[in-house]
Amino acid sequence: MKPVNEPLLNVINDQKIDPTSRLEALKVWESRRQEKAVIATAEINNHIHTIYSFSPYTPSMAALKARDSGLCAAGSVDHDSIAAAEEMIAACAVLGIGGCAGFEVRVNFKKNTLSPDGPFSQRKINNPDSKGNIYMTVQGIPRQNISKAAEFLVPIREQRLKRTLSMCAEASLLLRGAGLDAIGFERDILAASKYAEGGEITERHLLAAIAAKLIHRYGKGPEIVKGTEKSLGINITPKIAALLADNENPHYLYDLLGVLKSEFLPRIYIQPNENECIPAGEVCAFADSVGAIPAYAYLGDVGESPTGDKKAEKFEDDYIEELFSELSSLGFRAVTYMPPRNKAEQLGRVQRLCGQWGFMEISGVDINSSRQLFNCPEVLLPEFNHLLDTTWALIAHERLSSVDARFGLFSPENPLAGETLNRRISIYAAIGKKFDLFNPDESAVVIAEELLNNQENLYE
């Protein structure tokens, strides 16, 4: 048996080479893998960040991590970017798991065409950094419309770049005042991002640059805790201090970054303008125009943050019924949430409201740190088990509508348009599970043709 070539993993996760080279390395890795059987669960994750926003993983590596964690389906979702989509879908096919892609974007909920004065303008909804702005996702984008999504996101990315540049200047002033090196935007942030290839620069890129300055000044270990607290006036909890005192900690950068996001970012944060956070209704309308699914990202009141980068705080739970009414008016089709992040009563209420307003439920846990696990065993619990079917329905929607736009799950021309949403999801989930996952595009063409010619039998 051939030995596994470990350096291939470095190629698969090399953000400096092109996606084709990473995919070729992934194919070689699979051909040389000693253990052919991976113990698969029914678990899924539709919200994995990649290097195209901020993550330690290329799309190819994200797919491999997902498969090797036992997931049977995985999806990429990057901030303001759809650049990971083609590689993620192709990588999932190499590995024989279901694949899908979308993007996440912050939008303006203060003003929209339906409510000019915005009933939520002074409320924190699901965005810890801003009142009146929300996070949403656009998922299930047909392959032929990925380029349209990329074009749609260009002005948003440009606006965010300008704002990050201004925050970088603010951060450098504070760093110099603390006796630390200033940040070089092009050298320390732009060059470390995938912006030139359609990726996004996020606050985490800026904070990672600050973290690098702290590590350079104090080194890893107990001194960085003392130095950071003294120079920047940051309070580091004993739990995080213990992690940072360990200079062998493999997640060092991400642990330090989490502290900075919670304790330092508010000092330099500049609120996005309405050119960056465009109205939510405009994004929903765009998603509909390309056959994608616009989804509200439920956060819920936060106790202890699982990733350590969010403070305990109240969000949308107190007015969630009013919020769901507004979401429906704006054209949202789905709600995405994370079963490990909330209490049972919170998600029970979300599920009830999704049923009331006819929203599809999409599950996925955002992965943007090396410390996070890809597993989500909570989706196997009886109260969340239906999220497995919605994932396969999402995959079927994405692949079939890539063949024929009429097969979009929410298309008015869909042969099933007269059925209830639950019925459509059930049928599409069954179709998704019929795909040859190693050849999903070819499989979709065959199934689409069969559906057109023999609808009644295949829909049962």
The CATH homologous superfamily of the largest domain: Metal-dependent hydrolases
**Integer average pLDDT:** 92
Rg, Å, rounded: 22 Å
Shape label: globular
The CA-CA distance between the termini, in Å, is 45 Å
Report the total helices: 18
Q: List the helices and strands in order.
A: HHEHEHEEHHHHHHHHEHEHEHHHH
Q: State the CATH topology of the largest domain.
A: TIM Barrel
CATH class value of the largest domain? Alpha Beta
Overall number of structural domains: 3
The number of E-state strands comes to: 7
Structural class: alpha/beta
Low-confidence spans: none
Helix content: 40-55%
Q: Which sequence of strands runs across the widest sheet? A: 1-2-3-4-5-6-7
Q: How large a portion of the residues is in β-strands, by DSSP E?
A: 5-15%
Biggest sheet architecture: 7 strands, mixed
User: What's the CATH architecture name of the largest domain?
Assistant: Alpha-Beta Barrel
Protein described:
With 460 residues, this protein is of the alpha/beta class. The protein has three domains: 1-37, no CATH class; 39-145 and 280-458, Alpha-Beta Barrel (TIM Barrel), CATH 3.20.20.140; 155-268. Helices cover 46% and strands 9% of the residues. The chain has 18 helices and seven strands. A seven-stranded mixed beta sheet has the order 1-2-3-4-5-6-7. α7 (203-218) crosses α10 (252-263). The longest helix is centred in the middle third of the chain and has 32 residues, at 146-177. The chain starts with 6 loop residues before the first helix and ends with a helix. The relative contact order is 0.12.
